[in-house]
Amino acid sequence: xxxxxxxxxxxxxxxxxxxxxxxxxxxxxxxxxxxxxxxxxxxxxxxxxxxxxxxxxxxxxxxxxxxxxxxxxxxxxxxxxxxxxxxxxxxxxxxxxxxxxxxxxxxxxxxxxxxxxxxxxxxxxxxxx
Length: 129
Fold this sequence. Notes:
zinc; Hydrogenase maturation factor HypA; metal-binding; HypA/HybF
């Protein structure tokens, strides 16, 4: 279950960002997770909730945006989406080799919270694109 290690890494980054942007209260963490990462969103959410229990981050909502797998042909340059885990490594149009252009993402897209007790604000943090 690599979701626990990922949740621990997320927690470390979130705490660093809290300090860096002087956020006093976090409400939502928005994540981008590619389908090729094999991360189970429910497992990640469960692990994260266990790690933040009885901390300043308890009750924070994780919003996970799954990024579908997308390929591009190195020959004809067409782009295409993979469906239902039906992965192939040759272009479905011309048979040339392909490259994966989406689906490996794993980053924090946004951290929403309050800054120094003022109005609700959003602080963006993008990593690993």
